[in-house]
Amino acid sequence: MLDLFFRKYAWTATLLLLFAAAWLCARTVNTVVAAVIRPRPAVDLSALPSAAARPVAPPRLDSERLYALVGQKPPAAPAAGQEAGAGAQPQGPQNCADRNAAPVKSGLRAQLVAAVISDHPRSSIASITDLNTRETRVYGIGDQLLGATVLSIERLRDDRDATGSGVKVVAIVCDGGQKQYVDFEPGDGSGAPPPRPLARPGVPEEAEPAGPSAAEGVKKLADNRYEVKKKFIDETLSNLNNVATQARIVPSFKNGVANGFKLFSIQPGSLYSAIGVENGDVIQRINGYEMNSPDKALEVYQKLRETPHISIEIERNGQVIRKEYNVTGP
């Protein structure tokens, strides 16, 4: 049955196959011929007009955004009619009472060594060297420095800093009615008093009045209770270099954290011996302030000038001992 069907319609299948083969050949030939005879596009670039060079604007510095980036304010514009340069009027002497007056570099032969700026400006202190005598002392607000009065310890803008955001720590003083500053660079001596003359052989040098000794300034009332004369405290705090030579003081650490200052080699008859401090003691707190850094120690020393009572916590042989001192006298 199937053989009869294929014999009857075999010519139809052959015709369809021939038609499909002819169509595929025609399409192939058409595609090849079209690819051969297709024209290639060409652009004559020489005929195009040349574009003019785009102008490049010069770089512009946005000073307001730059000052905001460094956290500063741009300087105020000069007032109308004010001229700078050779024709400007020289600035007159600054008035010490004017808080807005800009200080100038001091001519005192003094050099700032260290400073502590407290949250309370009146408690700020500075360590300054007298270049005439090479003596370094700690000065507080209101103290006398080579005839000048210390007004404040502040941060001023450093004009030599290229970014305009640099600051430096200075001691502001009032010298001859002019506001000046003492920084870490030595003064030229233009405003300093004449140096003290050297002693001549055979001529006795006039001795300065000596203050009370440690035994006279400190009186023991009971165990860990003492009475201290205020004059003795003032004279002691005004010459910390002398106090530093009476014992060896080193930072103390516990579990890798600073916990005070340890004292060794305490001299007999010294301040430390008079107030009951022994070799190996660690001074941890004074009036509740932790003594964990040199800056904190300098700040506490300055505050002791005005307190009527002093409390010191000492660690001795692993135990904490509290010593109380009442300040008496004018």
UniProtKB/TrEMBL annotation:
InterPro entries: PDZ_sf. It comes from the Bacteria. Residues 75-94, 199-216 have a biased composition (Low complexity). Residues 75-100, 183-218 are annotated as: Disordered. This is General secretion pathway protein C. It comes from Anaeromyxobacter diazotrophicus.
